[in-house]
Specification:
Layout (H helix, E strand, L loop, with lengths): L4 E4 L3 H12 L4 E4 L7 H5 L3 E2 L3 H6 L3 E4 L4 H8 L11 E4 L5 H13 L3 E7 L13 E5 L2 H11 L4 E4 L6 H29 L4 H11 L3 H12 L10 H17 L5 H18 L7 H5 L5
Parallel strand pairs: 1-2, 1-4, 2-3, 4-5, 5-6, 7-8
Antiparallel strand pairs: 6-7
Helix pairs in contact: 10-11
Length: 290
Amino acid sequence: MPAPVTVIGLGPMGHAMASTYLDHGHRVTVFNRTASRADALVARGAHRAATVEEALTAAELVVLSLTDYDAMYAVLGAADPAALSGRVLVNLSSDTPDKARAAAAWAAERGAVQLTGGVLTPPSGIGDPGTTSTFYSGPREDFDAHRATLEVLTAADYRGEDPGLAALLYQLNMTMFWTALTSYWQAVAMADAHGLKAADILPFAVDALNLTQFLEFYTPRVDAGDHSGDVDRLAMGVASVEHVLHTAKDAGVDGALPAAVLDIFRRGVAAGHGADSASSLVEVLKKPAA
């Protein structure tokens, strides 16, 4: 029989998770500070907890889908600590690795266990374990005990005991996702200034953002500390990014993004990497800007 589950936080992601659990026959308890967000779920059979204590004690497994860890403290910190005892908190809220570790310690002080999670899909992907996944880290025993329930939502990619590791991997994913997607918005804005629509550039945009061959080429070199300029040189990269920036400015669109990239490239040249590969920027980015 499916295990009971509590879901706290009913934004789009939390709502999708609670709905998926209902689809799979779980007894679902929900709690949200704006209670009306639970109306549709309650109509489908979810139980709306009147208090956070009621939500916590309704199930051993408590899924947290909140904006960040500050929101988690605001919700759970107001509860009687006894209500946390014995709970497994699956904290899917986005935040830093250090905050994930601190929250795990906070939970342990109250007799609870935290499994940190980083969901690698939008709400529309919840319930499709074949194509989506979530990073998890924390106590292996508790992960194994609840793995089947977690895999109702997405595939479960366990990465180790350190509660901060799933948060780190999630933020690395977000670093690449938001930067790449913003570069696409930049290209769309520049295309629009020349009378082109997003649909006009879609085929080559998909190809441009498929970096598989570059990642596979650079990864062993970077790990070996090899930034040889035998294939590309950072100084040439500076010229290329300058052309991007000039194209944006000539079109009368915002050039803040290429300007920021150009600044990083120029810092690399100033650090003596002009004749090295652009991968040498890894060494530049390991240190904060002066």
